[in-house]
Design brief:
single chain, Serine Threonine Protein Phosphatase 5, Tetratricopeptide repeat, 29 helices, about 70% helix
């Protein structure tokens, strides 16, 4: 093995250790952070409903991410630490891959003769990527393994392809790296839709940083271009909506139908500027930005954002042109990183509408290019103003001035993710007029038993959205538990006015029933059953209400219906026995009480009832 290869291996090991140590330090306070927000839908509920067997044959959108959730569940159930450990490992690996991509670019034919401090610049890019607090949403928020895992395959494909194109690789190793790159490119497409841009980025890197006859280069890239078909076929092809991830696919297609592409696009010009601001000055981070939808390019905020984006985009192209004409190789990396940002952000910030206009996790993949550009900018600045400073001194200064403050900011931001209360209390401070934020904070207080604060936040939510049926319904449950019957009834009725729902009808019926108001209770139970035929609890309680009212035939009919639905319902069989006893049918009453005791031997009421009608004790 040559000294050069030994040096490269030592550099990679040092970079890997640095990335892992920094990632663990920054995210050390997240291992027991609670499941949040969409984690209940895409992780908890999904894992409970789908066994590993349902992942074969492999099909469906975001298949590989869902598979990792299922494997997490198989290994440790819903122990949240295991999910965080996997997310953290993915983040550390991504940092190393940023290092490998950056260093490989600097060894490419375009930059190899520029004398760039390869290790130092690549390591700084990796550390900036890992430390930046904007990454917390993609790492600490378990669901957004969608973004981080897709980025892993995306970067692995690029790093492997760059290694394949390296002049130092042997024939056998070239084939291995090419195969890894191709497999990773396809894996990325099965992880998240942001990977759609990967073939474009590979094509751009090939023609920007490498040389050679045109046709062979295109032929080598052709299989990667085929990977672009995966996402459209998954979303719109035969069998779309089936297999893993069918639920999220339905939501994606709903957004495509219901949101204006024009309005989404013009709004994203403003959003992209916000993203850029977060990369440069990461303050005011928020899980739920209160962001308006814009409808015209000529709105001042949108137009100014569009002009600024054009300035950066075409400025990056000009910088690359300058570097080709003999300028600093650092300009190539600054322009490449900038164009990477705009290319990779385009899937979620262009004409494909998404209900949520802005989310920080969408910066995860674009920030890899931004980190490379930022590292090159630091060394360009040092070259201009501190030309005698060694690469080690520049790296050390950048770590102190940028990496450490960003790490502290990320560590502090992670404290907000501790649980749903800390997360949404923070969000309400920053987006007090966003309805969903208020509702989620109210629900968090509700789940944690802080009922007075829950009432306050549900009431604030209803001032923002008077027809929020869920807020009315949850307020009704709280007031019923407090014994405030009138308030509970009012909110149940409001919830049902907005959206007739069998569970709300059932709970309203229970409210009437507990107060002895049998007629409205019976009417509400029947409404619940009309909305959901076969609603067992409603059938049972309707039978009980009818028996209390003296309608024994009606009660017997309902209890019998419950038994047909659930033959092991000891309570329904016992109450049917009570109906028979009231009707004077002792034989059938004895049979019913005996059957209830067979199912539930410690059923004291059934044993007493059996004794009272002369049955065996």
């Amino acid at each position: 093995m040559t000294d050069s290869r030994l040096t490269q291996r030592a550099s990679t090991i040092a970079a890997a250790a640095s990335c892992l140590l920094l990632a663990v330090a920054v995210y050390s306070n997240t291992f027991f952070s609670a499941f949040q927000f969409d984690d209940y839908l895409y992780v908890i509920d999904y894992c409970r409903a789908h066994s590993l067997e349902s992942f074969w044959p492999p099909e469906g959108t975001r298949y590989l991410t869902y598979l990792t959730f299922a494997l997490n569940y198989r290994a440790g159930g819903l122990d949240v630490a295991g999910y965080h450990a996997v997310n953290l490992l993915i983040h550390a690996i991504n940092g190393l891959l940023v290092f490998l991509v950056a260093s490989s670019l600097m060894r490419s034919p375009r930059l190899a003769q520029k004398g760039l401090p390869e290790f130092h610049m690549a390591l700084l890019a990796a550390l900036l990527f890992i430390a930046h607090p904007v990454q917390t949403e993609a790492v600490t928020y378990i669901t957004q393994r969608f973004a981080s895992l897709a980025t892993l395959f995306y970067l692995l494909a690029l790093a492997s392809y760059l290694k394949y194109r390296s002049s130092g690789a042997s024939g056998a190793s070239k084939a291995v790296f090419y195969a890894i790159a191709l497999l990773s490119a396809f894996a990325a497409q099965f992880t998240k839709e942001i990977s759609f841009t990967l073939p474009f980025v590979m094509l751009s890197i090939e023609f920007a940083f490498f040389k050679g006859p045109l046709l062979p280069r295109l032929l080598k890239l052709a299989p990667f271009m085929l990977a672009m078909a995966v996402i459209p076929l998954t979303l719109f092809g035969l069998g779309s909506g089936e297999g893993v991830g069918g639920e999220i696919m339905g939501l994606q297609l709903k957004d495509l139908r219901e949101i204006s592409r024009h309005d989404y696009l013009v709004t994203q010009f403003r959003v992209i500027v916000t993203y850029l601001r977060l990369l440069v000055v990461p303050v005011g981070q928020n899980i739920e930005y209160d962001y308006p939808m814009f409808h015209s390019l000529f709105t001042p905020e949108v137009l100014s954002s569009f002009v600024f984006i054009c300035f950066l985009f075409f400025g990056a192209i000009y910088l690359f042109y300058r570097s080709v004409k003999g300028g600093s190789g650092l300009l190539s990396l600054i322009s490449a990183g900038t164009l990477w940002f705009f290319t990779t952000i385009s899937v979620e910030s262009s004409i494909v509408p998404i209900k949520d206009l802005i989310f920080e996790h969408r910066l995860y993949l674009p920030s890899a290019g931004a980190a490379i550009a930022a590292s090159a900018a630091v060394f360009l600045f040092a070259e201009k103003f501190f030309s005698r400073a060694s690469a080690w001194k520049v790296l050390a200064a950048a770590v102190v001035l940028f990496v450490l403050p960003l790490s502290v900011a990320a560590f502090e931001r992670n404290k907000v993710w501790k649980n749903e209360l800390t997360l949404y209390e923070d969000a309400v401070k920053k987006s007090p007029s966003k309805e969903r934020v208020r509702y989620n904070l109210a629900w968090a207080y509700h789940r944690n038993g802080e009922l007075d604060r829950a009432i306050e936040e549900y009431s604030a939510d209803l001032r923002l959205a008077p027809d929020k049926d869920k807020a009315h319904y949850n307020l009704a449950l709280i007031y019923r538990g407090m014994g405030k019957r009138e308030e509970a009834q009012r909110h149940f009725l409001e919830a049902l006015r907005i959206k007739p729902d069998p569970v709300a009808y059932y709970n309203l019926a229970m409210l009437y029933h507990s107060a002895g108001e049998l007629d409205p209770a019976i009417a509400s139970y029947e409404a619940a059953l009309k909305a959901r035929p076969g609603y067992e609890d409603a059938l049972y309680n309707l039978g009980a209400a009818l028996m209390e009212k003296g309608d024994l035939a009606g009660a017997a009919e309902r209890f019998s219906s419950v038994i047909r639905l659930n033959p092991l319902s000891a309570d329904a069989i016992y109450n049917l026995g009570r109906v028979y006893a009231k009707e004077g049918d002792t034989r059938r009453a004895v049979l019913a009480f005996t059957e209830a005791l067979r199912i539930k031997p410690d059923f004291a009421e059934a044993r007493a009832a059996l004794a009272s009608v002369g049955g065996a004790k």
